Amino acid sequence: MAKLSIHDLDRISERVKRTTLLREGAGRAKITVHMGTCGIAAGARKIMNTLMDEIAERNITDVILTSSGCAGLCSREPMATVEIKGEAPVKYVDLTTDKIKRIFEEHVLGGKIVEEYALARGSERMS
Amino acid sequence: MNDQVQEQNKYRLHCMLCAGTACVSMKSLRLKEVLEEELKKHDLDKEVAVVLTGCNGFCAVGPIMTVMPDGIFYHSLTEEIIPHLVEEHFLKGRPVKKLMFTPPEEEEVVPKMSDIDFFSRQTLVALRNRGLIDPEQIDEYIARDGYKALAKALSEMTPEDIIEEIKKSGLRGRGGGGFPTGRKWEFCKNAPGDVKYIICNCDEGDPGAYMDRSIVEADPHAVLEGMAIGARAIGANEAYVYIRAEYPLAMKRLMLAIESAKEYGLLGDNIFGTDFCFDVNICHGAGAFVCGEETSLIASIEGRPPEPRQRPPFPAQSGLWGKPTNINNVETWANVPSIINRGADWFAGMGTETSKGTKVFSLVGKIANTGLIEVPMGITLREIIFEIGGGIPNGKKFKAVQTGGPSGGCIPASLLDLPIDYESLNEVGSMMGSGGMIVMDEDTCMVDVAKYFIDFCVDESCGKCSTCRDGSKVLLDILERICHGEGKEEDLDLLEELSAAIKDGSMCGLGQTLPNPVLSTMKYFKDEYLAHIRDKKCPAGVCKALIQYCIDPEKCTGCTLCMRRCPSSAIVGEKKQPHKILLDKCTKCGICRDVCKFDCIIVE
Ligand SMILES: Cc1cc2nc3c(=O)[nH]c(=O)nc-3n(C[C@H](O)[C@H](O)[C@H](O)COP(=O)(O)O)c2cc1C
């Protein structure tokens, strides 16, 4: 192992950045895939896997991916909620792998809501 | 760059499982295995990472796990519950309420760690990485700005600049004395000599204290980086960490940290391509309390019996092998990188006039949230004990808190609003010490407490000074007499005089502070001493010679439980009739009181 230069510290930080951000609960954007029994049955796992692949392939560091329970709208599963820091969350319904790829590209990375797949903005509060 | 860290970038959830000594003793390492098995079963092992961290601090409710990025805090985990947890939370995304924390006296759970009072009221500097990194992965430390301060110190600062910054920050020693760290470094830097040494004191001998262990377990690189910066400032190239032999986990992590820092060239020759060379050695403690005192610690490293010697000369002039030596406590070192990174003004912005920054305390005794906390200097005892600590369990009343280790003092309820710093604690007859806090409730006898601590010091006195060696024994004799109901009023004067003599006539801090528990309890709880002496009573019902157990016949239902449990067959009675205690057989062990469901055992 070669000795580190000062510059190498930044290089290492950058590489571990996704891990660090996740641990600090701080990301630029957060995507929640609803994974209740209904969601899983409707294919939420595929949505989750697609997102994980997108993040890994593009080496995205500042997007957090989580799951939550059934969102209460089982007929429109699979569903996901996209939250860009400082903006209201947006719920997307009836997802497919192609749809979620587009949402990832346009909304999560590009900042533009994909209106045609969106259900509603805003989110009910967790009690 | 190691593969494990690279791998972790792919996970969407990180289970930060506490692997501090307390949680490990509650089988948290086994939990890791079970978790990983369950995750595999559900095909989640590529999505959810299990990361072992250092001590989280909330040791009362271990084993602990925080799930990031959401910060869901789970406690008191068991092997049996893991399958349910994995299925609900990690597969279905439904965090499991029954494993979340409910504050004492409340009903609603608090899901997030950041919302729990125990955590939300803390300010982390020395412990800033606790629970956030795997202490065995140097890359994770680097990713949280690790070794940046060393880079800055080596590339942008002169040794004088470093010392100036530490002086300006107001950092004072966290190991007991509270000496200004920057000034200490300056003495050592200015001492003549080519060879100088750095020592890290991780002897931590105070009963109930585990601040230093926890820092080393959770973030060993912070200590190493602080030491490297200090070495640069002073002109030292070699260091020793003197660590208690009873800390195997801390020792292992420290050794690993030294190894990986060496591999990266962050220790060794020409660090960051500069002319600065620095090596760290580990030295196992010799086991006695007095080994933590700096001159005996140095003697112990040199292979001599650990006995304090007269100062001056101070270690800064003539320390290890007669060379100028700078010794600081673990926590002091761990503060250094943040001060260099964030600046002296940031650090000095926290705390009081004379005491800047934060302090780590271990909170033990009769307190709901036992654990390890870091809080700004100037916080009140009330905030620590009632807000962070969750108050006294079982509806009991607070009586006193003992701070400063075995030779600290007991502080009564009337002083709960005292903002704590080095000076205020001294003024009330106690001290900061290394940050131990033992909380006592109404069932504690203060004479007995004084006796306990003096007994500790009698055992731990190295025997060199007669005041400490013999004086402490006489103190103990008198206290024992009082607890046996054989005390006289003159004893109180004698205790006071003797205490003054021990303070004056002893060479090291042990003798100079050992009478504190006696003096402070006499000052604040004189009534209790008098009750023992005049009335031959122990108001708290602790001193066996002065109490009697009996059964309240009005309340006793004759359930026979106490009779069956009494180890000395001292309880007699018929079923459904009030029982009686035979005083000549009773050994006052208190088991009957503990088992009685109707609260009818009276202690007088
Ligand atoms: C009896 C006795 C025991 C001590 N034990 C410790 C100890 O366990 N850890 C520690 O850091 N300092 C201990 N000290 C204080 C050290 O002598 C020394 O002041 C300290 O390590 C200096 O570091 P600091 O300036 O960073 O606090 C002890 C002092 C005395 C008198």
Q: Keyphrases for this structure?
A:
heterodimer, A: 127 residues, alpha+beta, Glutaredoxin, 4 helices, disordered C terminus, B: 604 residues, alpha/beta, Rossmann fold, Ubiquitin-like (UB roll), 5-stranded mixed sheet, 4-stranded mixed sheet, globular, binds flavin mononucleotide
What is the strand and helix layout of this fold?
The complex is a heterodimer of chains A (127) and B (604).
Chain A: H1 6-24, E1 29-34, H2 37-42, H3 44-58, E2 63-68, E3 80-84, E4 90-92, H4 97-109, E5 118-121
Parallel strand pairs in A: 1-2
Antiparallel strand pairs in A: 1-3, 3-4, 4-5
Chain B: H1 3-8, E1 13-18, H2 21-25, H3 28-41, E2 48-53, E3 65-68, E4 72-74, H4 82-91, H5 117-120, H6 138-143, H7 148-155, H8 159-169, H9 181-190, E5 197-202, H10 211-218, H11 220-234, E6 238-243, H12 248-263, E7 279-284, H13 294-301, E8 325-329, H14 330-342, H15 344-348, E9 358-365, E10 371-376, H16 381-388, E11 398-403, E12 409-412, H17 422-427, E13 436-441, H18 446-460, H19 466-483, H20 490-505, H21 509-513, H22 516-524, H23 526-533, E14 549-551, H24 561-565, E15 571-572, E16 580-581, H25 591-595, E17 601-603
Parallel strand pairs in B: 1-2, 5-6, 5-8, 6-7, 9-13
Antiparallel strand pairs in B: 1-3, 3-4, 9-10, 11-12, 11-13, 14-17, 15-16
The complex binds flavin mononucleotide.
Strand content of chain A: 15-25%
CATH topology of chain A: Glutaredoxin
Order of helices and strands of chain A: HEHHEEEHE
Contiguous runs where pLDDT drops below 50 for at least 5 residues of chain A? 122-127
Judged by helices, strands and strand pairing, the structural class of chain B is alpha/beta
What does this molecule look like?
By secondary structure, chain A is α+β, with helices and mostly antiparallel strands. Chain A has helices spanning 6-24, 37-42, 44-58, 97-109; strands spanning 29-34, 63-68, 80-84, 90-92, 118-121. In chain A, a hairpin with a 5-residue loop joins strand 3 (80-84) and strand 4. Residues 122-127 of chain A have low confidence and may be disordered. Chain B has 604 residues and is an alpha/beta fold. Chain B folds into five domains: 2-112, Glutaredoxin (3-Layer(aba) Sandwich), CATH 3.40.30.10; 138-343, Rossmann fold (3-Layer(aba) Sandwich); 358-441, Ubiquitin-like (UB roll) (Roll), CATH 3.10.20.600; 446-535, de novo design (two linked rop proteins), CATH 1.20.1440.230; 548-603, Alpha-Beta Plaits. A five-stranded mixed β-sheet of chain B has the order 10-9-13-11-12. In chain B, helix 18 packs antiparallel against helix 19. Chain B is globular, with a radius of gyration of 26 Å. In chain B, 54% of the residues are buried. The mean pLDDT of chain B is 94. Classes of the chains: A alpha+beta (127), B alpha/beta (604). At the A-B interface, helix 1, strand 1, helix 3 and strand 2 of A face helix 1, strand 1, helix 6 and helix 7 of B. The complex binds flavin mononucleotide (FMN). Flavin mononucleotide (FMN) binds at residues 173-177, 179, 201, 203-205, 289-290, 292-294, 327-329, 332, 434, 508-510 of chain B.
